[in-house]
Write a structure and sequence with these properties.
Shape: globular
Distance between the termini: 38 Å
Oligomer: single chain
Structural class: alpha+beta
Radius of gyration: 14 Å
Largest sheet: 4 strands, antiparallel
Number of helices: 2
Strand content: 35-45%
Strand order of the largest sheet: 1-2-3-4
């Protein structure tokens, strides 16, 4: 089900696209019909830089289960003692 709910967050990151690395300052997260992924609906994340053209983004489409697994893996990784000390 498409909710048209979109979350846009500011980030400090780099993403590698077909033309190399780009600095990214925004991530757009939404649940919608995918363009390419083999699923009816996917969690989509677009990494972009507002100073660049919209085509200079890096996008990912994941089925809901993969998105949940990724979210848990990110949280588990960030909670590791060795990484907390680096921040």
């Amino acid at each position: 089900m498409c909710t048209y709910r979109t979350s846009i967050i500011e980030i400090e990151a780099s993403a590698k696209g077909p033309r190399g690395w780009i600095k990214t300052d925004r991530a757009s997260i939404y649940f919608d019909h995918p363009v390419d992924a083999p699923a009816l609906h996917t969690l989509n994340i677009d990494f972009m830089n507002l100073a660049k053209a919209p085509s200079d983004r890096v996008a990912i489409e994941m089925n809901p289960e993969s998105a949940r697994q990724l979210a848990l893996a990110i949280l588990e990784t960030l909670e590791q003692d060795s990484l907390v000390e680096l921040v």
